[in-house]
């Protein structure tokens, strides 16, 4: 009986090999709506020629990936998104310490489940990164000190489940289980010697 329970437990372990990890959030067709310091008119989008006006805070991802999708209306920051889910914020000047915050609604993109700081150059301090809902992220930059052209980047990820089994591990484990079962059955079938 103990052998049966052991075999069942080991079989469950073998079947459970692998895992789930976050994958880059693909943004190739994303339409992004942004705010800066809580104001829609604080962001100027590429689709509107970076000019103020109704809807100027919405832009599609630049298919050529040659520039930024947004400038803040004070032109302190440029914001770039790449098709593979990388967000980069670039300081156009040496930015004075202050309260700077941004929100980005990625609309129809896959659900955002992770948002990881990927790099900082010419930047000290730590930005606040948060997921507001499945398609909206927020940056709090008040804890960051910027040099001219300093940049920080973060990777947006989605929780697409991807099984990552160890190659051959389940087969090896199940083979070992079968051998244990044969040995145990052989012991149970023998008569003790006198």
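^ Assign residues to that structure.
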């Amino acid at each position: 009986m103990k052998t049966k329970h052991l075999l069942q437990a080991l079989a469950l372990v073998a079947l459970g090999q692998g895992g789930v990890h976050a994958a880059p959030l693909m943004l190739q067709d994303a339409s992004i709506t942004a705010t800066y310091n809580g104001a829609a008119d604080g962001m100027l989008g590429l689709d509107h020629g970076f000019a103020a006006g109704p809807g100027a805070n919405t832009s599609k991802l630049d298919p050529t990936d040659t520039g930024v999708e947004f400038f803040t209306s004070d032109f302190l920051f440029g914001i770039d998104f790449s098709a593979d889910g990388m967000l980069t914020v670039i300081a156009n000047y040496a930015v004075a310490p202050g309260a700077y915050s941004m929100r980005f609604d990625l609309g129809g993109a896959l659900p955002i489940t992770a948002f990881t700081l990927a790099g900082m150059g010419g930047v000290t301090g730590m930005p606040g990164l948060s997921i507001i809902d499945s398609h909206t992220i927020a940056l709090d930059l008040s804890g960051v000190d910027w040099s001219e052209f300093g940049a920080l980047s973060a990777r947006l990820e989605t929780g697409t489940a991807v099984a990552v089994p160890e190659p051959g591990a389940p087969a090896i484990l199940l083979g070992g289980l079968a051998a244990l079962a044969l040995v145990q059955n052989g012991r149970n079938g023998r008569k003790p010697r006198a």
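Residues 96 and 175 are 65 Å apart (CA to CA).
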